Every structure is written in C-alpha cells, then in structure tokens.
Amino acid sequence: MLLGLLFGLAGTSTSAVTVALPELTADLGISVATGVWIISGYTVALAVATPTHGRIADMVGIRLPLCLGIAAMSLGALAAALAPNFAVLMIARIVQGAGAAAVPVLATALISARWSGDQQGAALGRIAGTSATLSALGPLLGGALEAFGGWRWALALPVIGLLAIPPLWRAAPGGGTGERIDKLGATLVAVAASGLVLLIQSPSAGQVAAVLGAVLLVVGVPAVVLRVRKRPDGFLPRAVITNAVVLRSAFAAAAVPASWFALLLGVPLAAASWGWTPLATGVLLLPAAVVGFLSPPVARWLLHRLGAHRALTLACPTAIVALLVSAAGGAFDSPVLLAIGVALVTVAFGVGHPAMISSVGAAVGGEQRGVALGIATLVFLTGASVGAALVGGLADVIGVPGALIALIALPVAGVTTLLLRRREPATT
After folding, report:
1. Tell me, what's the pLDDT at 18?
2. DSSP labels for 253-317?
3. 31 within domain boundaries
4. Any domain includes 143
5. What is the full DSSP assignment across 359-383?
6. Which of 122, 171, 328, 411 has a CA that sits 20 to 30 A from residue 225's CA?
C-alpha cells in the first residue's frame, strides 16, 4: 500500500498539475504550449532515469536508491512550488522526475524479490490500483489545492512522500553486486529518449525543438546500438534487450501510460476551454478514482485466469476505446464521455502495468531482474512522455480530439505486437 501511494504521488505530479496549468501559465506570463513542458520535462526525466535506478539497485541494493529517489521527488516538488520563474520551475521539475523514477522500478523490483506467483500478482495489482486511484484523484486534489492557495500548492503535493522514507529504509534490503554503472550508456539512452519527446512536441514548441530533437535522436539511437555491441553487459545488457518477452511486453504496455497521460493532460485542457475551474475538472474525473480503487482484485483475477500476456493484450484495446470515447467527448463538448474515457484508461492501466511487470519478472533471472524491470519501465514511462508530448504538441494544431485520435496508433501497434506472438515457434 505504501509503495502504491508513492507510485500514485509520482502520478499526481502530472495529474494534479495539469488542472492548474492554465492558472500557472497566466501567472508566469507564458503560453500554454510552453507550460506543457513542465509535464513533458517531468515525464522525460522520469523515463530516462528509471533504468539508472534499477542498475544502481543491482549494485548497492534497493534501500539507498529508493530512499534517495523519494527525497529528490519530494524536494524537487517543494522547489517547483517555490520557483520564482519558469526556468527554475523547469529545473525543479526535472529533478523531481529523476527522483520519482526510483519509485516504479524499485517498488516493482521489491515486490518481485519478496513474492512470486499469485502473491506477486496480488501485490502488483494492489500497487497498480492504489497508484491509479491516487493519480486519478490528482486532478481533484490539484483543483482543491489550487482553489485553496493557488497553483503552487498543487505542485507541492508530492512533498508528503518524505514521510515514507523511514519505514522504507527499514523494510527495503541493502547490498548488491558492487559493480560500477555504465555512465556513458546511461547518458546515450537519455539523449535518445529526450530527442524523441522533443521531436514529438515540436509542432507547438517550434522549429528549434524539432531540429534539436531530430539531432539528438539521429545521434543517440546509433550510439546506443554501438554501445550495446561494445558493452554487452553495460547499462543496457544485450541479454535483456534481446529478450523477446521483455521487448514485446514493454512496447505493448507503453501504449497504456501514453493513453493515460494523454487524457490526464487533454481532459483538463478541454475542460478549461469550456471555462471550467480546476476543481470542477477534478470532480469530473472522480469516477476514475473509484475505478482505480476497485481495479486490484480485477487485475489479480485477470492475471490468474488469463496470464500476463493475455491480460496485457486486453489492456491495449481498452486504451483504444478510452481514446475514442474521450475524443468524442472533446469533439461534442460532453463531460460525461470524457469521464468515461478516463475511467476506461484507468482500467487499462490497472491491468496493464502489473501484467507487464509479471511478464518481465518471469522472463529473466533474479540477478538481472532489477535492470530488466528498469528497462521495461523505461519503455513504459517513455510511453507516458510520448502521450503527454503528443497532446501538448498537437492540441494547438489539430485540437485535443484530433491529438487523441492520432494517439490511437500506439495501442493499435501494441496489441498487434502481442498478437504476432501466435505466429512464432513454440520454443520462443
């Protein structure tokens, strides 16, 4: 439950902020398109730092990187809330995202290390359900805090994560392999991932972002490939990134947070265009929090009955339906359809995340579980960055409904990848 609450705080760092985005941008004197960078910057840092935490945990144990990450997430949120200008706010958000990256990968690594089988599925489902509930409550909490004291209070919400450090320090194991991290490999992965998000958001961010993103992507991807060939046991171990189950599960699952973060950003933008207050938007998304609260037993049942692969295959079509319903809600100014869309994507997340973790955890040995979960979560959270960047980049160009329709390509590709497994030889 505690790990799920921390995971939820990492999610509210986006969901609680999106409803306050119009007020934030107006107060700082920036455009909404510029303000969206505090969402994308956070999610990019969250994604690219994830495998780093996993690798550090393999070396020194889970305790130290988990507690330091929570501290960075909390203090980064405090710095963001006190930021005097947009530049300081961006730096604080990047620090916050880099710290929050410790939570998803190390929480799941801790669960995978302690339990297996049905118990592991139950624990992962509880984490996903608790985090989905709190993340879905994020807009309501952010709207209430904004109404109480302004947008800075909404940004400060993750500070309460500091309270979790003492019990986790006692519960999480220390000790690891002691090997050094491949710093160059980690840097190259960060370059490639950042380039992808910059390129996606360039329609609203401008030509400079497009050129920089393209350069980072063109340079970063080949460099990562060469690094893996030179250091097969480095930051991205070849044995892990060539594992078909890891790659397939992570790629397909990435469509779920892409859809989720897209709606957490797109729905408040649509509601703001109707003149809704942040608090009213938060109330609109309250049913999604109820769905998140009820999702753990559903996820556990699906994992037990269908297995991780089929449960994940079910999550992607659910995300497709959620995007279609939400796009219709934005096009026809229907709050009810928007609320249904977010509730559906919450179901997809509550099932898809534990299914991915269960699939990846079973596909690799214990000595590589931390880095495998880190890489899978990197791909998973890169999907979140892509979803936020795509809506932020295209909303001003083709509107929120159009951006959500364009995003459907991701869960379609994800479910196609999973279905292709049937054509592979049984030995795979």
Report:
1. 81
2. HHHHHHHHHHHHHHHHHHHHHTT--HHHHHHHTHHHHHHHHHHHHHHHHHHHHHHHHHHHHHHHH
3. yes
4. yes
5. HHHHHS-GGGHHHHHHHHHHHHHHH
6. 411
Query: From CA 371, how far away is CA 381, in angstroms rounded?
Result: 15
Give the other-Cβ count within 10 Å of 14's Cβ.
Answer: 26
- pLDDT given at position 88: 95
Rounded Cα distance, 360 and 104, in Å? 14
191 contact partners, CB below 8 Å, separation of at least 6? 216, 219, 220, 223
- Burial label, 424 (beta-carbon count in 10 A; 0-12, 13-18, 19+): exposed
pTM reported for the whole predicted model: 0.78
pLDDT score at 365 = 66
pLDDT value of residue 204: 61
Q: Per the domain annotation, does 428 fall within a domain?
A: no
pLDDT of residue 427: 38
Task: Indicate the number of domains in the chain.
Answer: 1
**Contact predicate 380/250, CB 8 Å:** yes
For residue 413, tell me if it sits in a domain: yes
Task: Answer for the pair 118, 362: CB distance below 8 angstroms, yes or no.
Answer: no
CATH number at residue 255: 1.20.1250.20
Give residue 291's domain range.
2-423
Closest CA to 245 of 357, 147, 325, 153: 357
The whole-angstrom separation of Cα 249 and Cα 424 is 15
Burial letters for 26-55: b for 16+ Cβ neighbours within 10 Å, e otherwise?
Answer: eebebebbbbbbbbbbbbbbbbbbbbbbbb
